[in-house]
Amino acid sequence: MPDSEDRAGGLVQIERSAGQAPLLAWATPLVNGSPTPTYRAVAIVDPARRQLTASAALEATFRFTKAEMRLAEQMMNGKSPAEAAQALGITIHTVRTYLKRLYHKAGVRTQATLVRRLLQAAQALPS
Q: Residue ranges of the HTH luxR-type domain (predicted)?
């Protein structure tokens, strides 16, 4: 039986020189019917380059509520669900409820895929 960590995707922060926000790298295993992933897809994003209008556009595109969008922003900035709960002043149970709603509205099943879809959508917005 494969190790569950082999099948898990996740976030890695890549530190940069002083004064620059870390880059975010999301790794998603590509299983394709195999019991263990052979390849991983990696998306690297510089959160500092996101436009301020991205949040409003994402909110409208995916029909997120204000509360869901606040959580989505936390996730896009590399926060874990527990860190997001603390930053937003809500319980982890509320975060999990919002995450389920975000997954449904974005048409995804995992946290890594959600973040990747949101970051891709934000980058595709016109300048």
A: 61-118
